[in-house]
Amino acid sequence: METIKNQLSGLLSPEAQRRVRSLWYLGKRVSEWPSALLHPWRRKSIRRLGDLANAHQGKRCFIIGNGPSLKETDVSKLKGEYTFGMNRVYLAFDEWGFKPSYLVSVNDLVIEQCAGDFRELTLPKFFSWRAKHLLYPEGTPDDNTHFLFTTYTGPTFARDARGRMWEGATVTYVCLQLAFHMGFHKVILIGVDHSFSTDGEPNTTVVSRGADSNHFSEEYFGKGFRWQLPDLETSEISYKMARNEYEKAGREIVDATIGGKLEVFPKVEYASLF
User: Fold this and answer.
1) Phi, psi of 75 (to 5 degrees)
2) Which residue of 109, 127, 189, 192 shows the fewest CB atoms closer than 10 Å?
3) Looking at residue 139, what is its pLDDT?
């Protein structure tokens, strides 16, 4: 894709380039559909996602971000609650004394570098179908694994997680779609700080040079880990889409992140929830 961008930059106007890129990504999504619909691993995931539809209707859940504010949050209070954890959240399991109800990861770089850890986890876990070969290059997935058909482009909010899901530049948005699919009436965000100390062009791949100050653990994206700089602007677009869909359905999303910078959802005091 980078080669295409370079070639187009000298031939087409910015608007024409945008249209060509949109068509290219649309074609890519269409080409992924047969496998995402018909492959036996996906067929199994689709059936199991069907079983989860409205499985927690009317309940509340917590989506646990990975921001440094978690160090100021008594996460142990969530033991016994329905919870979603993301990416390398497992680094905190011993400290918290419990595992989340569900784990979600859709970023290719994270999955590639943490595939061994993910395979060892014994809780329900959801991964992008795109990264199947990174997780299971040989053999078959374990019974805890669910594959989601997630894409980088094509903004939408999926009320039914069995179809295509837009990633919205943040795995938190995928969790919000899964929570809706499962029927949760109230979703509470914690640890979604929505701020990073590392500067640079959004979505650029960088290599960590030392301890991680952007997450709850210095080891999260520690020295040598490859990761992509956040796209906070696109994340806010996706969060607003989620807020609108929840409100239209008579549901709600609130933000209990301590000191968080996200302004899309109503704020609540974490301590007031218990």
Assistant:
1) -70, -20
2) 109
3) 85
Q: pLDDT tens for residues 192-222? A: 999 998 888 999 999 999 999 999 999 999 9
Q: At what angle do helices 40-52 and 14-38 cross, to 10 degrees?
A: 90
47 inside domain? yes
Sequential DSSP letters for 52-90: HTTTTTT-EEEEE--SGGGGGS-GGGGTTSEEEEEGGGG
With CA atoms as reference, report the closest residue to 85 among 104, 68, 71, 69. Answer: 104
CA distance 144 to 117: 14
Question: Are the CB atoms for 192 and 262 separated by under 8 Å?
Answer: yes
More confident residue, 4 or 258: 258
User: In which residue are the tokens 């100050």 written?
Assistant: 213
- Checking if the pLDDT of 224 tops 90, the result is yes
Q: What is the pLDDT of residues 37-75, one digit of tens each?
A: 889 999 999 999 999 999 999 999 999 999 999 999 999
User: What is the 8-class DSSP label of residue 91?
Assistant: G
Helix locations, 97-206, DSSP H = 108-120, 132-135, 171-181
Q: Please give the radius of gyration of the chain, using alpha carbons only, rounded to the nearest integer.
A: 19
Distance (Å, rounded) from C-alpha 170 to C-alpha 259? 19
In a domain, 21, yes or no: no
Return the structure tokens found at 220: 């999260």
* Residue-range definition of the domain harbouring residue 247: 39-273
Domain containing residue 201: CATH number: 3.90.1480
Asked if residue 22 belongs to a domain, the reply is no
Contact 56, 33 (CB under 8 A): no
Rounded (5°) CA angle 51-104-89: 135
Entry pTM: 0.89
User: Is 217 within a domain?
Assistant: yes
